[in-house]
UniProtKB/TrEMBL annotation:
<dbReference type="InterPro" id="IPR036421">
    <property type="entry name" value="Fe_dep_repressor_sf"/>
</dbReference>
<keyword id="KW-0678">Repressor</keyword>
<feature type="domain" description="HTH dtxR-type">
    <location>
        <begin position="1"/>
        <end position="63"/>
    </location>
</feature>
<feature type="binding site">
    <location>
        <position position="102"/>
    </location>
    <ligand>
        <name>Mn(2+) 2</name>
    </ligand>
</feature>
<feature type="binding site">
    <location>
        <position position="77"/>
    </location>
    <ligand>
        <name>Mn(2+) 2</name>
    </ligand>
</feature>
<dbReference type="Pfam" id="PF02742">
    <property type="entry name" value="Fe_dep_repr_C"/>
</dbReference>
<dbReference type="InterPro" id="IPR022689">
    <property type="entry name" value="Iron_dep_repressor"/>
</dbReference>
<dbReference type="GO" id="GO:0046983">
    <property type="term" value="F:protein dimerization activity"/>
</dbReference>
<feature type="binding site">
    <location>
        <position position="11"/>
    </location>
    <ligand>
        <name>Mn(2+) 2</name>
    </ligand>
</feature>
<feature type="binding site">
    <location>
        <position position="103"/>
    </location>
    <ligand>
        <name>Mn(2+) 1</name>
    </ligand>
</feature>
<keyword id="KW-0804">Transcription</keyword>
<comment type="function">
    <text>Central regulator of manganese homeostasis.</text>
</comment>
<dbReference type="GO" id="GO:0005737">
    <property type="term" value="C:cytoplasm"/>
</dbReference>
<keyword id="KW-0963">Cytoplasm</keyword>
<feature type="binding site">
    <location>
        <position position="8"/>
    </location>
    <ligand>
        <name>Mn(2+) 1</name>
    </ligand>
</feature>
<protein>
    <recommendedName>
        <fullName>HTH-type transcriptional regulator MntR</fullName>
    </recommendedName>
</protein>
<dbReference type="InterPro" id="IPR022687">
    <property type="entry name" value="HTH_DTXR"/>
</dbReference>
């Protein structure tokens, strides 16, 4: 299993490749707000653990294993954003809160949160009922 830090890298690399077609060390450093030398170090570790293939002057590609995990990490992040939005968390807090909790939940918890998100998305009246409660408790 990748560590929380490895997960952050795999997630960002997956997003970069998905949106730009490639992930450069400098882009990863910028996305994660870390020094490029830290990226190089981590990328070498991820290469060793077979999440990606890295060649210094040719860039990097995710292996099948890295790609599969990247996809799940992005799914998890998006799901948790939806969850926090449903329970009424202020928009400005959502991204940072997800970054803070996403590595610390079991896949079991993620799946059950997924059920809850589905429950509210399936039926607009459920969402409205919850919103009523949120409005009542907002300033208490
Ligand atoms: Mn994330």
């Amino acid at each position: 299993m990748p560590t929380p830090s490895m997960e952050d890298y795999i997630e960002q690399i997956y997003i970069l490749i998905d949106t730009k077609g490639y992930a450069r060390v400098s882009d990863i450093a910028e996305a994660l707000k870390v020094h490029p030398s830290s990226v190089t170090k981590m990328v070498q570790k991820l290469d060793k653990d077979e999440y990606l293939n890295y060649e210094k002057y040719r860039g990097l590609i995710l292996t099948q294993k890295g790609n599969k995990i990247g996809e799940r990490l992005v799914f998890r992040h998006t799901l948790l954003e939806q969850f926090l939005e449903i329970i009424g968390v202020e928009k400005e807090n959502i991204y940072d809160d997800v970054e803070g909790i996403e590595h610390h939940l079991s896949w079991n918890s993620i799946d059950r949160i997924g059920d809850l998100v589905t429950y509210f998305k399936d039926d607009e009246t459920r969402m409205e009922k919850l919103k009523e409660i949120q409005t009542e408790t907002k300033d208490s």
